[in-house]
Amino acid sequence: MARSRRSKIELTAYDDLFETDVSRAEASLSKIREIPISEIDEFPDHPFKVLMDEDMEQLVDSVRRIGVMTPATVRKKEDGRYELISGHRRKRACELAGFDVLKCEVKELSRDEAIIVMVESNLQRSTILPSEKAFAYKMRLEAMKRQAGRPIKDNYSPVGNNFEFATSSDELAEKVGESKNQIFRYIRLTELVPEILEMVDEHLIAFRPAVEISYLSEEQQYTLLEAMGYNDATPSLAQAIKMKKFMQEDKLTDEVIQSIMQEEKPNQKEKPAFKDERITKLIPNTIPRGQETDFVVKALEFYNRHLQKQRGKER
User: Fold this and answer.
1) Torsions phi, psi of 84, nearest 5?
2) Residues 222, 229: Cα–Cα separation, whole Å
3) pLDDT (tens digit per residue) in 180-208
4) CA-CA distance, 194 to 230, in Å (whole number)?
5) pTM of full prediction above 0.70
């Protein structure tokens, strides 16, 4: 009976027991291969932009000279093609350099695991736009919730403490080094219409006012966009909070939005009469603010009189 029990004991394989770091590294290297770029698909809803900037030009030059030093990360799809998880800039650089293949490490990952790896790798970039953080945090938090079997709530609030996402958001906050409330503020930006979100990326609208604006409906946001253009101004935090309050009370009409945007802000400087630098640089600094138009009109009148005298002499 004792012999029978001993015969069922599974012994660890000798090679596995004494596997070295070198052998493990060799096993990892076996998954690195040159994959035709034509067989690699973009990651669905990838939130990070691949910009044609100076950094990309330098990367293309580097790839031409020495190739791709750090492999991209992909996973194999059911249809036999590959899905790019990290390395979107490297892939684009290879395309611009005229390469047909990309050095990749093939990993076996689930959809949610792939999302987490994709976000982690891209958050290492030196420059990240607010919109990129917004969608990246949202994708990763939802993936973490699914992995933990927690329900997903779309109503993210900077002061939310609902139990079903408290643990996941705490984990994410610790990993990315931002407070949980700040993460929720970023995620709120995903509720902005594209035109306003682009203004946030371009630093035309401050972050905190943008968070408050995100609570407005799509129609209200587009009305606000028109009001911003008409008044040549963006909302302050106080104005954004006021609009959100009116919205919550179901009193935010087009007229109210326009009225709020017409309010004079504290320490607001009077807008220059002209935006064209070719005009503004010719106006002396001694001309008081608000009298630029009079100065330009007088200058044009003087110039016209000069032209008339010149024509009279030519006759």
Assistant:
1) -80, 125
2) 11
3) 889 999 999 999 999 999 999 999 999 99
4) 19
5) no
